[in-house]
Amino acid sequence: MNSFHQPVLLKEVVEALKVKKDGKYFDGTIGGGGHAQAILRLGGQILGLDYDPEALTSAREYLTTACPSSIESRGPNAAWRLVRGNFKDLARIAKENDFLPVDGVLLDLGVSFYQLRTPERGFSFNLEGPLDMRMDPNLKVSAADLINGLNKGELEKLFEKLGEEKLARRLAEAIVEARRLKPISTSAQLVEIILKVKPRRGKIHPATQVFQALRMAVNDELNNLKEALPAALEILKSKGRLAVISFHSGEDRIVKYFLKEKAEEGKVKIITKKPIIPSWEEIKENPHSRSAKLRIGEKI
């Protein structure tokens, strides 16, 4: 398995998508390529997408090694190909790549292990690096821009809404006070401020929710998801499956109510009345999976 990526709920995703030989599957978040590799080994075709050019490079290297019997190429019968882009544009990208209609769409939300283990990307609170967090390096606003530019009320709202942080006000106050002395430019600086407000207790790092909120804001993740879901439904063939793995209650809520709305319109059959979550064994092996929730819908 790719040393940079341990796919979450792998067996459950393969079952959810009902992977079959020569089926077409759109992986809207290729990440390290772990889910795509499993689909390819079952004979499926993959169009893989990622916002992050470094993730695409990592996935391309991994799939070339892990699936030597298939090569990346273009055309309707290609085993796999990777494209850079935002999954909110997946309908356009599928059309441009002559990859329609599809048997399944996978969206694995959140940050990849590769991104967390690359200090210069700034996603991790465990590794010192610039406070960046842009999945697409062409985005204009970084996490440092938000931390140093938003006022106290805006920071509090951000931490509450996207981080579900109970100490949002105290953290916002501490950040504003600290940046009066000097700009907050590294992940280590931000972690130091957070730890003064939230001493470390238990297994979950005190900075988890603040870093999550910043990442989601920098990359506009909730709005991208809202646009991606109807686009995914559009490119699915009848009986095709949409599988979404979320790691945040706000993301899960969006997926849940999208499927509910489309089911009421008679366009989708909900396969998961309750989300599928990782087993204790998986969580023990891959702690990153602990908050994962998988929801599945089938196009009617």
Automatic annotation (TrEMBL):
InterPro entries: RsmH, SAM-dep_MeTrfase_MraW_recog, SAM-dependent_MTases_sf. One of its GO terms (cellular component) is cytoplasm. Its EC number is 2.1.1.199. Pfam families: Methyltransf_5. Keywords: Cytoplasm, Methyltransferase, rRNA processing, S-adenosyl-L-methionine, Transferase. It catalyses: cytidine(1402) in 16S rRNA + S-adenosyl-L-methionine = N(4)-methylcytidine(1402) in 16S rRNA + S-adenosyl-L-homocysteine + H(+). GO terms for molecular function: rRNA (cytosine-N4-)-methyltransferase activity. The keyword Ubl conjugation does not apply. It is found in: Cytoplasm. The keyword Cell membrane does not apply. It is an enzyme of class 2 (transferase). It comes from the Bacteria. GO terms for biological process: rRNA base methylation. Its main location: cytoplasm. S-adenosyl-L-methionine binds at G33, G34, H35, D50, F87, D108, Q115. NCBIfam families: 16S rRNA (cytosine(1402)-N(4))-methyltransferase RsmH. Belongs to the methyltransferase superfamily. RsmH family. Specifically methylates the N4 position of cytidine in position 1402 (C1402) of 16S rRNA. This is Ribosomal RNA small subunit methyltransferase H. It comes from Candidatus Shapirobacteria bacterium CG07_land_8_20_14_0_80_39_12. The gene is rsmH.
